[in-house]
Amino acid sequence: DPAAQFYTDVWGAAYRLNNGNTLITHSTAGSAFEVNSQGRIVWEWMNPQQDLFGLPYPVYRVSRVPRETIEKTVHNWKQIQ
Questions:
Q1: R_g over Cα of the chain
Q2: Coil, strand or helix at 79
Q3: How far is residue 43 from each of residues 21, 23, 31, 72, 80, measured CA to CA in Å?
Q4: Helix, strand, or coil (residue 51)
Q5: Is 30 in contact with 55 (CB distance < 8 Å)?
Q6: Cα 49 from Cα 69, distance rounded (Å)
Q7: Which tens digit of pLDDT belongs to each residue from 12-60?
């Protein structure tokens, strides 16, 4: 049952992005993914940190950060090194 596999009883979030896609945090599964308007997954992430059973740690919320913001932050960080 796909709906049951996607259920998270705590946290979780879904945000519509400016490009029309939706960013979904599946908190208890320790993952996040972005789907387009056709329902196709265009980006996916799984928390690399694992518990004692080898399962990904939950994530509270994922936010999309524009590439330009990342590049500017990295540039500024390198300037202070």
A1: 15
A2: helix
A3: 10, 9, 11, 22, 32
A4: coil
A5: yes
A6: 25
A7: 889 999 999 999 999 888 999 999 999 999 999 999 999 999 999 999 8
Please tell me whether the overall predicted TM-score, pTM, comes out greater than 0.90 for this model. Answer: no
Alpha helices for the chain (secondary structure H): 2-6, 67-79
CA 64, 58, 67: angle at the middle one, nearest 5? 15
Q: Which two tokens stand for residue 32?
A: 């996040």
Q: CA 64, 53, 10, 24: dihedral to nearest 10 degrees?
A: 30
CA dist., res. 72 & res. 30, Å (int): 28
Q: How far, in Å, CA of 77 to CA of 16, rounded?
A: 30
- Name residue 33's beta-bridge partners: 24, 44
